[in-house]
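Example record used in the benchmark description.
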Amino acid sequence: MLTEYFARYVDGYRPYKNGAWCYEDGCIYRGLELLYRSTGEHRWLSDFDRLLGAQVGEDGTLAGYALSDYNIDNILPGRALLFMAGETGEARYRRAADRLVQQLATHPRTRSGVYWHKLRYPWQIWLDGLYMCHPFQVEYGLVAGQRALVEDSLEQIAIALDATFEPRTGLYAHAFDEARQQAWADPATGRSASHWARALGWLAMGLVDVAELVGPRDFAPLGARTGALFDRLLSLRQPDGLWLQVIDRPDLAGNFSETSASAMLAYALHKAGTLGLVRPPDDLIARVLQASVRPKPGGGIEMADICEVAGLGPFESRYRDGSPAYYLTEARVCDDAKGVGPLMMCQATFERGEAPSRVEAAT
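Model output (structure tokens):
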């Protein structure tokens, strides 16, 4: 059932931002890549090439992309470029990936050395950005033989984890303002006030993808923190098998099971199991796949209860203060790319049938 849902979804998919290069499309590209890898079915590769190819010029230009925006979100689809460059041999994909690396070479950084989330979010580290950037930077560094890029990513992740860790909850704050200038930032710690599940989903996926790319020896300095985070995330899983929008607040009136974060966390936790970082329950993926979709009026199914967007600071004439109550004000939608892409990743992982490894002692 889900396979056909994904096929129909991709057949009718229109670029998220009217064709402009964006991370939302990158979520679908990653889902298609993993479905192709897990099944070997060329329909997924054909769809992938069709959608990605429409955004990449022969000279490596990317539709609607401007390096000077210094938006870390724009790096996420770069992994699709690397994959397709290897799969098709088309030089335009590698040229486009090189263009993204040029952005990173001059991307502004905090004083502690971490990429700003966006040029318009100065001095800020967001959990989202760790997934948007570092799996691509690490993979590019490995492909291009540029070890410094790999080491830089590992160092940035470690610094970001230090900056965003909240000892009171054992989780990581959505964002950190090094300058302590934002109204959403605690004036003492610089951290935002609460724990949005999808921000933690981005973080979790970033950690396991980097761990898989670099291998256990290089990932060892991050291993203990990663394992502790994943154990904490498992403790917050709800009876329905999903995770809440404000992940650690089951007492919060109006809180709900949010499916995009749940798909991200299920993928990440299962992958962490195969890497020996945590021992997830056997039903983890299956329950998320089942609970995330519902019958659609008129036939078929849809992925429900996806938070359309959430962030911090001013946006569309309002201020997003990062409070638990704020995250419950954002719209819930169906079939958004930020949910469907990770659900594809879950399905691919489920189909591959990778079994968790024995969990090693934290190093």
